[in-house]
Amino acid sequence: MRGEDRAGGTDAAHRDRRLARMDAFRRDMLELIREALATLDPDAFHRHLLARAVDVVPGAQSGAMVLWDEESDAYRFVAAVGYDLDGLRHLRLPAKLAGFEHPDGESTPRIVRWPRPSPPELGREAVAALSEHGREGEIASVLIVPILRGERIRAFLTLDNFDDDDAFDDEAVQMGRLFAGHVEVLLQRFDLEADLQRLAFHDRLTGLPNRTLFLSRLERRLAEVGRGPWAILYMDLDNLKPINDSFGHHAGDEALQIVAQRLAELNAEGHEVSRLGGDEFAVVVDGAEDEAHRVGRRLLASVQRPMATEGHTVYLGASIGIGLYPDHGTAATDLMRRADVAMYQAKTRLGRNAVVTFEPTMEAAPLERLLLEEALRKALDEHQFVLHYQPRVSVATGRIRSLEALVRWRHPERGLVPPGVFIPLAERTRLIHPLGRYILETAAGEARRWRERGFGDLRIAVNLAAKQLERDGFLSEIDEVLGEAGLPVQAVEFEVTESVAMTDVTTNAARLAALKDLGATVALDDFGMGHSSLAYLRDLPVDVIKIDRTFLSGLEPDDPNRAIVGAITLLGQSLGRAVVAEGVETRAQWDAVRAIGVDEAQGFLLARPMPREAIDRLLERGDVLVP
């Protein structure tokens, strides 16, 4: 009986030690997750991950981690313990070999006895590399830990033992399964970060580098001492608007994609092609003016070739301006501006479909811009600005949660002047400060009136420009304006675009935090189109994340945008932020954002921007804005 007691005590002690190891292992994994979220460094994460596994999984003496590589359609080594990783990085292993014929989609770790010598299916190169940079031929058993992404195996963790064919037991398998579950979540995080970084630096429609990447490369080029001469070709497409108007935006988008494919041929020759936005492209060409003109003529000929879009044959033209380095400047802003000025001359003076090199006589400020600035000052004095309001609704209930104040300029002669024209001008001339005060005063007055009429939970959203955020005394001005309007600051939401917030993260984070300290709500607008870093999203003191409208194009179940919107929503909500989908224009998009679980939505499908009288009627009716 006493022997049975001793046996039972031994089993209990063994079980307690095992439970203690599992508990320690879970704590290790939580610490690893915190490290990964803090560093956002995939290489360091892979190394720490594998080292931790080799250290804590019973029976493990060395190991490797292989990750699926889309380009090579095979697995590649990303971490190794007991092997020389540098000697293995070039290897690519097919799925059958990387997982030792592990069944596709199967999540349970497996124990495999390593054949000696290594199986010939590995290939001569792989066997030679393992022999040279590891302990090939000495391995006795391997624990294969698959790491899934959805139903597909994204990575394998292989843990080796050199001494015992039966080194790994059920406890090791259980640890491997737990390990894989945590790693799967983190790999999804890194995938999302990589996708957002790619989207931040490449144009979604054409796949070409975007303005941000173009300017970054331009600065690096300018920093290379002794490099030159070279040129910037600034190209603006002609006749794209008639295609959009006649055949729809899908036809225009298709035309832009065809142009991008034709321009991409220049990349193979060493030229750098980028899409700056809209119908504007830029090409950097090594060489003097003659070479720049030769490439410019090729660009024109390429663009002017007929193209088929949406079943129609269409024709585009282009106007191209050239800025030469170092003749026309040694700073990126100077070269870009002068190439742009030359392009404008090609479009207006030569009637389009022309290539023009910048000349100093072109740089005089256009009369049109001077007249517009004068008109803007007059508009402020004569109260030509009006506000329209666009509702933002709860996805769950369809009820209006807030109203975004959008400024409109009704010029007595020009008609409606687009905000994209006068807001940048207001920022350049510092007229943004009186204009911004007018917007806040007017919106606050209307918000107080709506609250007095019984809509007390309605928030008003006001956009902030970079110059406003930077201005000393801005917080006291907000306090003063809201005090005069009789509106509590809790009823106001201030929106800043991601690009503004990221200009100086530390300084702007402090300014946004000060806004929150006043009691205001802070929203990050156009999320995903600037730096798109999830680490910054965690650190910025914002209450609301507004996902940029470009991510809402498509949203079919297999569309990458749907996965990104879903991941941003999940992460934002886990950080305590409300998530808003901007630009909801179709029923399919509405259904998609509801299925994803976005908190609020805004877009033409729900309600267009409208004057206060229309908002009054909408609120009085108590409409639920569900399509």
CATH superfamily heading of the largest domain: EAL domain
Mean pLDDT: 83
Report the principal-axis shape. globular
Structure class: alpha/beta
Architecture of the largest domain, CATH level 2?
Answer: Alpha-Beta Barrel
Descriptive notes:
There is one protein chain. This protein is α/β, with parallel strands linked by helices and 627 residues long. It folds into 3 domains: 21-199, Beta-Lactamase, CATH 3.30.450; 211-365, Reverse transcriptase/Diguanylate cyclase domain (Alpha-Beta Plaits), CATH 3.30.70.270; 382-621, Alpha-Beta Barrel (TIM Barrel), CATH 3.20.20. Helix content is 47%, strand content 22%. The strands form 4 sheets. An 8-stranded mixed barrel has the order 14-15-17-18-19-20-21-22, surrounded by 5 helices. It has a 6-stranded antiparallel beta sheet with strand order 3-2-1-6-5-4. Helix 1 (2-39) runs antiparallel to helix 2 (42-56). The longest helix is centred in the N-terminal third of the chain and has 38 residues, at 2-39.
Features:
about 45% helix; about 625 residues; alpha/beta; 3 domains; Alpha-Beta Plaits; TIM Barrel; globular; 6-stranded antiparallel sheet; Beta-Lactamase
Which SSEs are present, and which pair or pack?
Elements: H1 2-39, H2 42-56, E1 62-69, E2 74-81, H3 85-88, E3 92-93, H4 95-98, E4 110-113, H5 124-133, E5 141-149, E6 152-161, H6 170-201, H7 211-223, E7 230-238, H8 240-247, H9 249-264, E8 272-277, E9 280-286, H10 289-304, E10 307-309, E11 312-314, E12 317-325, H11 332-348, E13 354-357, H12 367-381, E14 385-394, E15 400-411, E16 415-417, H13 419-428, H14 432-452, E17 459-463, H15 466-470, H16 474-485, E18 492-497, H17 498-501, H18 505-518, E19 521-527, H19 534-539, E20 544-547, H20 560-574, E21 578-582, H21 587-596, E22 600-602, H22 612-621
Parallel strand pairs: 12-13, 15-17, 17-18, 18-19, 19-20, 20-21, 21-22
Antiparallel strand pairs: 1-2, 1-6, 2-3, 4-5, 5-6, 7-9, 7-12, 8-9, 10-11, 14-15, 14-22, 15-16
Helix pairs in contact: 1-2, 1-6, 8-9, 14-16
